[in-house]
Amino acid sequence: MSDQDNKAVDRAEISGMLAKKAPEMKHILNYCLHCSLCAESCFLYMSHDGDPEYMPSYKVINSLGKLYKKKGNVDREFLEGIKGMVWNNCVLCHRCYCPIGIDIPRMIDFTRSICRSQGVFPELDEGESWL
Amino acid sequence: MDIYGLVRGPLVWVSLIVFVLGMVYQAQQFLSSTRVREVVLPPAALLGGGDFPRPLSLADISNSFFGIHPVITVVTTIFHVFLIMLPIFVLGHNVLFEESFGFSLFVFPEMVADVLTLVVIAGGFFFILRRLLVRRVRAITTFYDYFIVAVVVAPFVTGYIATHQLLNYETFLIFHILLGELMLIVIPFTKLKHGLLFFLYRYQMNYEHCLGAGSRVWSYNQAK
Asked: Hey, where are the domains in chain A?
């Protein structure tokens, strides 16, 4: 376990990042109809036998959605919990397609930025061990 | 003023005003959060010109939502079209238009209106069943999603009951009007606002799958 793993997260920084993009992100999160029609556009969803955890909307709702719900009041355990969701379950290929026009990769990208700001990202030599 | 006079008079105006102002507010929020992109290239220029738009091929259709989910595409389309058309062209509402404003529109024959009402109600049940039974939809469904469907379908259920006097006519007529007003009031402040935002997001926002000019971008992260 590295020093980074034990370091407390900077909640003020996370809240600041969330607030900066709130006009877009909160608006879009509240606009998502939870229709699940984005699923088939994700090749990871298709190649994991339709596992809902790979559905683009699932990834956004359970990562960025929860960050907004908690207003950034999260701990390192939470960020480590969504790490696989945003770094491994999505490759940001930008092929996910929302019928009502939500730019899903933009939200995953933003969630990655928040994780990265707190040192939560996979190391190059980490392999699959962090999943 | 009795309760019927209240719900078909002042409350109608209150709900209509809240609905219109709410939608204007949502449009204003969209415009204030976004700005016009500096450079807008028409799709033909992005693709090198010449071959866009091209005729639809079978592959386009099989790769579209219709090709992947024919049932949900057809049900959703019919549901939305009937949902909007029915309240405007149903006989009872046009009688009220005539009484209040001195004009009325084309009206559906009552048999047609009945069928359309039942189709909308069936569509609502379809969405609820889909949320309950399909694993991936269930994985992201919350109570709020059921509430949204209920808010939309309830005026149609009560309207049908009142029209056919299946239960107490006066009570269900008042329920019908109140639930219709409730729907109008909540549209701008819930996910139901997608009736407006769909057109703004799909056609105005610049992103990978934009259907229109994509002339707007989010405004907060770059200087105006």
From this structure: 11-117
Q: Do B136 and A101 touch (CB under 8 A)?
A: no
Give tens-digit pLDDT for B92-111. 888 888 888 888 888 888 89
| Interval B178-190 mean pLDDT | 95
Residues from chain B that touch A23, judged by Cβ atoms under 8 A, are: 29, 33, 218, 220
Torsion of CA B160, B164, B167, B168, to 10 degrees: 100
The answer to whether the Cβ–Cβ distance between B137 and A31 falls below 8 Å is no
| Topology at the third CATH level for domain B3-36+58-218 | Fumarate Reductase Cytochrome B subunit (1.20.950)
* Cα distances (Å, whole numbers) of residue B169 to A115, B92, B98, B107, B199: 58, 14, 22, 22, 39
pTM, rounded to two decimals: 0.85
Tens-digit pLDDT profile for residues A46-72: 999 999 999 999 999 999 999 999 988
Of B134, B194, B221, the CB nearest to A100: B194
Residue B3 neighbours by CB distance under 10 Å: 12
DSSP B166: S
Measuring CA to CA, which residue among B158, B149, B147 is closest to residue B180?
B158
Does residue B222 carry a pLDDT above 80? no
Bridge partners of B217, per DSSP, are B35
What mean pLDDT is predicted for residues B205-219?
81
**CB under 8 Å to A53, separation ≥6 — which residues?**
A59, A85, A89, B139
